[in-house]
Amino acid sequence: MSEIDWLKTKQTCDGILHLELNRMPVNAFNAQALNELGDLFTLWEENEQIKAVVMSSALKVFSAGLNLKEAQHYDIFEQTAIVNGFHACFLRIFSFCKPLVVAVEGAAIAGGLFPILCSDYRVSGPAASFGLAEVKVGVGLPIGLVEIVRSMMSADTMRLMMQTGIPIKADRALQMQIIDECVSAGQATERAFEVAKNLAALPSTAYATVKHQIRAP
């Protein structure tokens, strides 16, 4: 189990680790939370007993991204810390060599979309929504995160999502290949475990090699 209160973890007997985000009220990130999340993936990569990770949310929202209430009061040092935190956390998750499957039942907006973009397989419920809303609040994305978006979306999808900031629903996200499956309400986590078990059964060294070949550039 994780010792960090908002990151609930439970490992199954077949090596699948369930990570549940539970940072009230909307799983918003600050620099400390990003560092905590990224550090766990570093530890899990070195743990041979962990074969794959399933990530979900214990809250109605998957994640709202940056904690805007805190961010509006940041000084220059805190601004630097949050940008560095986003880079370190999500580039760490993006390069995680083991299978990462996400189950999404609620909104994943702005920075909250990046756990999904960093994952290997995305299962959504019908009520989920997805967006990159930074332009609406008057900011851009750190360059490392832009490159994650570029590698995980088509050019037209990236253009529409980043330049309008308008969230899209699960059915449209499936068409745009932001998610891989849309299942019945409440069934996303169960399906994510099925996918994770299948991916974990693949030869681990080959899986890590192929994943690196796809993502390294």
Distance between the termini: 34 Å
- Biggest sheet layout: 6 strands, mixed
Derived from helix and strand composition plus strand pairing, the structural class reads alpha/beta
Order of helices and strands: EEEHEEHHEEHEEHHEHEHH
Radius of gyration: 16 Å
Q: How are strands sequenced across the largest beta sheet?
A: 1-2-4-6-8-11
The percentage of residues in β strands lies in 15-25%
Rounded average pLDDT: 94
Shape: globular
Question: Could you tell me the number of beta strands?
Answer: 11
Provide tags for this entry:
single chain; 217 residues; alpha/beta; 6-stranded mixed sheet; 3-stranded mixed sheet; 43% helix; globular
Helix and strand topology:
Layout: E1 7-11, E2 16-21, E3 28-29, H1 31-46, E4 52-57, E5 65-66, H2 68-71, H3 76-94, E6 100-104, E7 107-109, H4 114-117, E8 121-124, E9 129-131, H5 143-152, H6 155-164, E10 168-169, H7 170-175, E11 181-182, H8 188-200, H9 204-215
Parallel strand pairs: 2-4, 3-5, 4-6, 6-8, 7-9, 8-11
Antiparallel strand pairs: 1-2, 9-10
Overview of this structure, please?
The protein is of the alpha/beta class. The protein is built from 9 helices and 11 strands. It has helices at 31-46, 68-71, 76-94, 114-117, 143-152, 155-164, 170-175, 188-200, 204-215; strands at residues 7-11, 16-21, 28-29, 52-57, 65-66, 100-104, 107-109, 121-124, 129-131, 168-169, 181-182. The strands form 3 sheets. Strands 1-2-4-6-8-11 form a 6-stranded mixed β-sheet. A 3-stranded mixed β-sheet has the order 7-9-10. Strand 1 (7-11) and strand 2 form a beta hairpin. Helix 1 packs parallel to helix 3 and helix 3 runs parallel beside helix 5. The longest helix is centred in the middle third of the chain and has 19 residues, at 76-94. The radius of gyration is 16 Å and the shape is globular. 39% of the residues are buried.
